[in-house]
Amino acid sequence: MPENQQKLIHTFGALAELGHEVSQKNNFQEMIRTSLHLLLGSLGIMRGGVARYSRFGHELNMLAVRGLGDDFPLSLSLCYEDERQFLINGLVPIEVSQAKVLPFFQIYDRSFESKKIELLVPLVIRDEIVGVVLLGEKANGESYSSYDRDIICAMVRHIGVGIAQRNLMAELERRAEENRRLYDDLRMTYKDTVKAFATAIDCKDKYTEGHSVRVGKYSEIIAAELGWSEEQIEGVAVAGYLHDVGKLTVDRNIINSSVRINAKESAELNKHPAIGYEILLPIHHPYTDVPLAAKYHHERLDGRGYPDELEDREIPYIAKIVCLADSFDAMTTDRPYKRRRPANEVVEDLQRNSGKQFAPELVTAFCSAMLKEITLETKQKKFRRLLGKEYLEAEGIVPMLKNALNGMNGTSSLTLVSLD
Ligand SMILES: [Fe+2]
Fold first, then answer.
1. What is the pTM of this model?
2. Which of 84, 123, 258, 345 is 20 to 30 A removed from 225 (C-alpha atoms)?
3. Sheet containing strand 75-77, strands side by side
4. Distance 297 CA to ligand 1 centre (A)
């Protein structure tokens, strides 16, 4: 086979291998190293290096070197004039000995000379410098032919494309990270706004200070015990925080009445779920059920709730959670006309009303979460923080909770129809 033909086949083989290397995106450093070795090996070049260009630092950072020794600079600075000339030059090899007019070659003249660097090829991809390839002398002592230069051009293009792809990926990752941060900031703002609203709602009622926030936290406990995702738990907590937002429109005297309110006042107060729904509906919530939780948190499984006397299957699930959390807080905090009830009595009430007012599996989840905390099965102190340590240390609370859990099978309210 003629020598030229052999050379051609060899070159195409090297190019094919280089293309394959570049398409393997797993290990960028390894890809660059292998590509450099392929380039040097296919043309019998003694030494060389590949550097990546950083447009922020205006510098070239060596990614792979062969035969350049430890004293060769790992970072090379470019000035504006160098960058301009490299861009004009494109992917054509520059003869180092002929380019000394540029500041870059003057600064690094000694390093290039000591390592016998003969060619420098700017890696210009889509009108951007992404790096350079430095090439030393050929092993056979011959100077580079025009054929060699053509091969070099073709091969370094592959390396340049590999670096450009990597840059693009890094940029995409950076933007994705930025988007994630923006989203987190927005979420935080939303949560802070919700909490501010909850505080505003609670301010209106001097007897139930902190009620909305506690309902949010109890709702969160129930959802966590049900094994819901972080986002769903967050959604339920928001629904709890905002469930009484409709009370903002109810007369302060009715809310703060220290005596039992009359029928007319009661009717006025009972409008708050529907009003809350109207207030929340136009707001774009990341969690769609928030307005429904406000509207139906006073409904009961047995159909004796309000405003629409819905029955079990008709009540949105999130409203059932908030209903349980709401009732539990009402029973465990002091009201103007009645003191908080002891823990045993409250658990008994939950058990008795399971399937009537409350969804059984939610009562089970709630009792189970409380038991785990009291028996230190979990290190969380959510109930303790909300109710006080002493309250949870009531005598007989553990057997009571165990009994409640044994007595309830936790069947889904969607399958259990227990109407009086
Ligand atoms: Fe309410």
1. 0.67
2. 345
3. 75-77, 59-66, 48-54, 128-135, 119-125, 94-95
4. 7
